[in-house]
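# nightly structure sweep
# worker-07 picked up a monomer target from the shared queue
# config: single-sequence mode, recycle default, output format = structure tokens
# input follows
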Amino acid sequence: MYLEYYNLKELPFRLSPDPKFLYLSKAHKRALACMDYSLWNEDGFVVITGEIGIGKTTLIRKITEDLADNVLLADIYQTQFNEVELLQAILMEFGFKPFGISKVELLGILKNFLLEQNRNHKRVVIAVDEAQNLSRPALEEVRMLSSLEVDTQKVMNVILVGQPEFSDMLDLPELEQLVQRARFRFHLGPLTKEETAEFIEYRLSVAGSEKPNLFPAATISVIYEYTGGIPRLINTLCDTVLTAGYVDSVPKINVSLVKDAVKELGWEPYQSRRNKAKRKVKISQEKLSPDSSKKQKVIAYFEDQKIGEYILEKESIMIGRSPLCDIRFNDNKVSGFHAQIYTTHNMCMVIDLNSRNGVIVNDKKINKAYVNHNDEIHLTRFCKLVYQNENVIGESGSMEDDDEDITYNSQ
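# output follows
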């Protein structure tokens, strides 16, 4: 739309993870170096965490596109799996059709495949994006696979990339063995204001811009104020600015145009949004009793008839039609693995596992959302769960779910 007007050959601020547009800040360079070192030294696995939109997926694309011909890659980007589904996903990446067989058989197939590639002098790399969605049993499978060696040489490398809560998961005592196997563990922070300016200039140059300082220094301050140095937000705002500049016939971006774009997006300053999100979490936590000995549970109903009551003792609970699920509904409209419930720190989140008919919480279709005491979780018209939390003090309230820091809806 604005390409010809600003003499650009392609869109500079698209949101897709294109390695060509990857701006390497100081932190991104260090993260990339950690990944590269681990891969080429066949040294176990590396963990990279960072905020939503910081460029983690683009880093994976960058490191994997440079792999040699003797390297086989499994690129796992859908991670709402239990341990069996994770093994199936990895094998599918290598051309297998791993369905209708047991977990023992899956492990045997994968182990034999890894050993065969090692004999053929080929290396296997498994890159897992959005690793914070992996269940603990799935992470345990990763640990076990990463320990497989031939003559003290690892037969596979693993890259685990996730949001900040993944780092919190790894700090749990029961995952200490997994953490000890990580050669590097690195957290990606936001860009500085100076890096934000360089980021914008770099992407414009890659897109073919011949206009230096299309975004003057005064505009960078405003952009940084409203994006907090988060690359995805910078891309969104700058693309909106260029579109508005084209419509208004503004040859060089100015502060007024940036502020108009901010209004169009309905954004508050980034730090204000972050503080508001933290307040929401704090208020929600204050509604819960500190007595963790009290129970969280779900009650299952079919056609409004109670069919079971389940104490949420495990962190991860699988729900669906499959016999492997913790809570099973014998209804053809329920997917094999329909939904997942996570309970941590006295909070409860429900996740739709790409089910055929979706998940509805209190009449609203969701991807991921926290649930409160007495919320109803519908899998189909006749199959539902009611979440109950004995720790709730007083009247329960609904958590707002329009902020990415609260609901973690898919980005």
